Amino acid sequence: MSEFLEVIGNVGFPIAVSIYLLIRVENKLSELTAAIGELREAIILLPHEKYWKAIPTMPSFPSNGQPAKQEYL
């Protein structure tokens, strides 16, 4: 009987802590999943034309494969 109590004492506490932490992590994952879904919807609903025009395009390379020299003011 004392061996049984010792096993429960040695194994029961880590099991209880693991279950507690898994429940907390599951709640956080649910919150993160909801936030990702909201972010996805916000990105889909963005008026793309307005924002994409503000982003500068990459300079094109001439036919020789070297980038063009940039002049700075």
Question: What would you say this structure looks like, in words?
Answer:
The chain has 73 residues and is mainly α. The protein has a domain at 23-54. It contains 2 helices and no strands. The chain is elongated and about 85 Å long. The mean pLDDT is 78.
Notable features of this structure?
elongated, single chain, mainly alpha, 0% strand, 2 helices, 73 residues
Shape: elongated
The N- and C-terminal alpha carbons lie at a distance of 86 Å
- Using only CA atoms, what is the Rg? 29 Å
Q: What is the string of SSEs from the N terminus onward?
A: HH
Number of helices: 2
What would the average pLDDT be, to the nearest integer? 78
Number of strands: 0
Estimate what percentage of residues fall within beta strands. under 5%
pLDDT < 50 stretches: none
Structural class: mainly alpha
Main sheet properties: none
- Helical content, roughly? 55-70%
